[in-house]
Automatic annotation (TrEMBL):
Any Gene Ontology CC annotation: L-cysteine desulfurase complex
InterPro entries, sorted: Complex1_LYR_dom (IPR008011), Complex1_LYR_LYRM4 (IPR045297), ISC_assembly_LYR (IPR051522)
Superkingdom: Eukaryota
One Pfam family in the UniProt entry: Complex1_LYR
Protein name per Swiss-Prot or TrEMBL: Complex 1 LYR protein domain-containing protein
Length: 127
């Protein structure tokens, strides 16, 4: 009889899928993939049948390969950024890697104010 997939293999597959999904430049697709990956793993958490586990693991590996191809494809063809992406940009998970400062432009009585968002999450207002 064959043995079940180890927990570390499942965790490794989950992390690889999430890292690949994080590489997608479009916010909507990136959020969709991350949500679907999490939902799929949560829904199948209680599966105890070894044959079913192996089938699910193989589907996960195939999904990882497909996601890698999708990442390459989305990077080849640039997209028009959404309003949210234009104003805020992409906020990286590791804030120390952020090389740009994110800001809002707010108009008050014909005067524009630039509100920068720092890594400490305290807005700094400059004119």
């Amino acid at each position: 009889m064959s043995s079940a997939i180890t927990k570390s293999a499942w965790v490794n597959l989950y992390k690889q899928l999430q890292k690949e999904a994080d590489k997608i430049p479009q916010y909507n697709y990136r959020a969709f993939y991350q949500r679907r990956i999490r939902d799929h793993f949560v829904a199948n958490r209680s599966v105890s049948d070894v044959v079913q586990q192996k089938k699910l693991y193989e589907e996960g590996v195939q999904s990882l390969e497909s996601l890698k191809r999708q990442v390459v494809f989305t990077r080849l063809y640039p997209h028009n950024k959404t309003v949210v992406e234009q104003k805020l940009g992409y906020w990286p998970k590791n804030e120390r890697k952020c090389r740009e400062k994110w800001y809002f432009l707010i108009e008050t009585d014909g005067i524009f104010q630039k509100i920068e968002i720092s890594s400490s999450n305290k807005p700094e207002v400059t004119i």
